[in-house]
Amino acid sequence: MAVDTIEQTREYIGMWVTKDGYIRHELLAGNRYDEARGNRKSAYQGSYKITGNHIDYKDDTGFTADGEFIEGVLHHAGMILYKEN
């Protein structure tokens, strides 16, 4: 039995947070994201694209990054983010 990817389930939409709560990364339904860092709301904003379990980011200044969803956890730029319920 095949396992659905995060792209197929769209379960990536929502708020992803580091364990300490410092990074709050909201993936919006319209392929945009808004990232807060500490007290800095909207510290980074941009677009994203999901392919399978892979995510590619491009912030509004042109900086790019990527990540992987592994067993319901987002691994991004050396950080581990958990989906907030």
Automatic annotation (TrEMBL):
Pfam families: Atu4866 (PF11512). This is Agrobacterium tumefaciens protein Atu4866.
